[in-house]
Specification:
Distance between the termini: 57 Å
CATH topology of the largest domain: Rossmann fold
CATH class of the largest domain: Alpha Beta
Strand order of the largest sheet: 2-1-3-4-5
CATH superfamily of the largest domain: P-loop containing nucleotide triphosphate hydrolases
Number of domains: 4
Helix content: 40-55%
Length: about 475
């Protein structure tokens, strides 16, 4: 027991000294903090099993402090206390992650029992968390929301690679948060004090991308009225994030390869190369391996960029994170729009957790922003949902009944049932493929069948779906 550390937080020195004396007598190691900031700093630096904290502190609300402390050390136990207590505050503190709440002045026997109980709970928590990757710098990853197994693996990977200077290639569909991950790697690296510079290769016209990246000398082309520093130079000693690298044209791929090899940039129209020290993180939503095979992306550049590949899971593979993201964005947009919407009713939650999210986290964020603005009630209901989200399930898979898709009248002359059913099934399959732009996996989700079943049906029926050419986002 002698090694268990307890951090005391109270701005009243008499209380803190009294508690410290009691805990030392009981054989615990004690740390003291007089402010929330001081306590959080100590948590970053020291392994602590428990915090006993006064929740009525200046500058920080008790609920915020509990959340921040739990973010730094998720397995730690927090016992909160205060002289004034309302049931609402107690509920909020427990929801934020406090283990229990005591009213002050407290009975020492009750406190002693609570500490023993809390430390037992902490040992269990720590044992469970040991089996999962543990993110030490959660604070730096706070913009990336997720607790699913795939996201915990991603966090662990980000931590591992951040300390190196290796070039990283992030692969993920549009809207999965590639830039957020690149930023987190920069924030956790030794370059965090320098610039993080992002360039979207798909958003800048080809003829301007070269001068955007490498800079240009005054007069080097029509419109170059002043010399301009390129993004490579801006990112010197920092990180350069090249988004949608798959859209980069062949002539620029050659120039980028040269910069990666020589660590020098040559501005457009300039004759003197400039040395740069830049960590490159590239990202794409395309299949670069396939592009290399098709010779639309240079193989040598691909291997230079893909020293450490990181794959971001699409939202449909992170089912357990959907509710977490919905609530997080609800808080954000409530704050931004001065609204007080309390949450989503169970039917909406069920529909949205089963929705395939083709636009990933970005689509979910846009939907929540819209719902916060248009909703009139204190809770978001089925009626608030845009039509495209209502079209999915309105009940969970377990209770699901067949949705009446169309009423068919039986003609007097009779009907060939087999052909009618076949025709109806073909129409639905083609509609699902149309809605998902030809993506069989998403179409299967909409039809509530396995992907393999859908592919089998397509083969058997000899149905071909030709997606109209879509441009990349």
């Amino acid at each position: 027991m002698e090694n268990q550390k307890i951090l005391l937080l109270d701005d009243d020195s008499k209380t803190i000294d009294f508690l410290a004396a009691f805990l030392v007598f009981k054989g615990y190691e004690v740390l003291k903090a007089a402010s929330a900031e001081d306590a959080l700093q100590k948590l970053e630096q020291t392994d602590v099993e428990m915090i006993i904290a006064d929740t009525r502190m200046p500058n920080t609300s008790g609920v915020d402090f509990v959340k921040m402390a739990k973010t730094i050390r998720p397995e730690m136990v927090i016992i909160a206390y205060s002289p004034f207590v309302s049931p609402e505050t107690t509920a909020e503190l427990l929801k934020a992650g406090a283990f229990l709440f005591l009213e002050k002045p407290f009975n020492l026997e009750r406190l002693d029992a609570a500490i023993r109980q809390g430390l037992e709970h902490q040992a269990l928590q720590a044992r469970n968390l040991r089996h999962k990757p543990k993110v030490k710098s959660r604070e730096k990853l706070k913009n990336i929301i997720g607790e699913s197994e795939k996201m915990l693996e991603l966090f662990e990977m980000v931590e591992k690679v951040a300390g190196t200077d290796s070039t990283i290639l992030i692969h993920g569909e549009s809207g999965t948060g590639k830039e957020l991950v690149a930023h987190a790697i920069h924030d956790l690296s030794g370059r965090c004090g320098r610039n993080f510079v992002a360039v979207n290769c798909a958003a800048i016209p080809d003829d301007l991308l070269e001068s955007e990246l490498f800079g240009h000398v005054k007069g080097s082309f029509t419109g170059a009225v002043v010399s301009r520093m390129g993004r490579f130079e801006m990112a010197d000693k920092g990180t350069l994030f090249l988004d949608e690298i798959g859209d980069m044209k062949a002539n620029l791929q050659v120039k980028l390869l040269r910069v990666l090899q020589s660590r020098e940039v040559e501005p457009v129209g300039g004759s003197k190369p400039k040395k740069v020290d830049v960590r490159i993180i590239a990202a794409t939503n395309q299949n670069l391996e396939q592009m290399v095979a098709d010779r639309t992306f240079r193989e040598d550049l691909f291997y230079r960029l893909s020293v450490i590949p990181i794959s971001l899971p699409p939202l449909r593979e992170r089912g357990s994170d959907v509710a977490l993201l919905l609530n997080s964005f609800l808080k954000k947009f409530n704050r931004n729009n001065h609204r007080k919407i309390e949450g989503f009713d169970s039917q909406v939650m069920d529909i949205l957790t089963h929705y395939p999210w083709p636009g990933n986290v970005r689509e979910l964020e846009n939907l929540v922003e819209r719902l916060v603005i248009v909703s009139n009630g204190s809770v978001i209901t089925y009626q608030d949902l845009p039509e495209k989200y209502r079209g999915g399930r309105t009940v969970s898979r377990a209770q699901q009944t067949v949705t009446p898709v169309a009423q068919v009248a039986l003609p007097g002359s009779g009907i060939c049932l087999h052909s009618a059913v076949e025709e109806f099934e073909n129409r639905l399959i083609l509609q699902a493929l149309q809605k998902t732009g030809g993506n069989k996996k998403e179409a299967a989700i909409l039809l509530n069948v396995k992907r393999t079943t859908l592919i089998e049906k397509l083969k058997k029926k000899n149905l071909a779906y030709n997606a109209s050419p879509q441009h990349h986002h």
